[in-house]
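A protein record in our archive is deliberately plain, so that people and models can read it alike. The record that follows is passed on verbatim for readers who wish to inspect the format.
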Amino acid sequence: MLKFLSRVRIEFNALDPRTASCLEFLAQCNATKAKESNPGCAVQVKRRTDDEPPKITVTFVNGVEEVFDATATPAQSIRNMILEKGQLLETEQMFRDAGEAWPVIPAEELHQPSPGTKPRKAEEKKQ
């Protein structure tokens, strides 16, 4: 999971009962396998004393940053999202290394109907 990230910042108040997701995610980040996958990933923990909700901020290796409300998002969901985006990053990098343009499918073609499908009529769209 950490191999796709350059930084993880976990913020929570230790006395707040809503910290379960932060603590679980921190445990996943501190696992030996995760650390070995990317020793350069900085895992920062900020213990707060205010009533701010717990949050997890991840920065992907391409610089994109995402912030998660840890009160509403389970640690496993955050982990799955990171893995999905990581696979997309790997795929994109493979195409770039091969000298291919990214995205492979031009945007204007993404919205065209597929062969063998019938376009919906205006009346059907309204329903």
User: Anything to note?
Assistant: The first strand starts at residue 5 and ends at 12.
